[in-house]
Amino acid sequence: MYSKCFIKYPTAALNVLWWKVNSSTLLTTNNRTNTGDKRFQARLKDENTNHWLLRIKYTKPSDAGVYECRIEGDFEASIFVFLHLQKATAVIQGSVPDGTRLVEVGTTLRLSCFLVNSIESPKYIFWYKENRMINYDLDDGESIREGRQGSELIFPTARLSHTGNYSCVPSNADQANLYVKVQTKVKRKC
């Protein structure tokens, strides 16, 4: 997560300080981190435009709140940034309220997982059946397609043995779960 601070009239004799307002914690002064929490880093993005960035690595709920970028030197000014964090979550497309998807034997079974509230692509997305990772244990034409913000588990021909609990587990979001029940005939609602 990055917060920006732009100084319109730069001078050589100034300091840029980042504070977490509700805790009165001085996080950084110029490029130096002042807190013991090394997740916080400030850097000058561009000397010509004098854009300063505060980076918070591996954000957690307690990082939410108001941050102040304070300029001290020939003149003083502040800008305030409110950081609202949303938890990234995975969703299996077509999930139903009771968490069960009915599939007919012999049809194609597609489980499409995508991320909600994620600002970056996951490093990986693993699929599990009954708490056992199956990404590297597929057979009979089964496959996984990876996309920038999701993954799709495909069974070209659904079998009774495909019945079970499936989980989509991304590296950077909460997992999604779905129970798949493969049966010989699926009653269609009109």
Automatic annotation (TrEMBL):
In its UniProt record, which GO terms are filed under biological process?
synapse organization
Q: Name one Pfam family in it.
A: Ig_3
PANTHER family documented for this protein? DEFECTIVE PROBOSCIS EXTENSION RESPONSE 13, ISOFORM B, DEFECTIVE PROBOSCIS EXTENSION RESPONSE DPR -RELATED
Q: This chain belongs to which protein, by name?
A: Ig-like domain-containing protein
Q: Which spans are transmembrane here?
A: none
Q: Output a single Gene Ontology CC term carried by this record.
A: neuron projection membrane
- Per UniProt, residues of the Ig-like domain are 1-80, 106-179
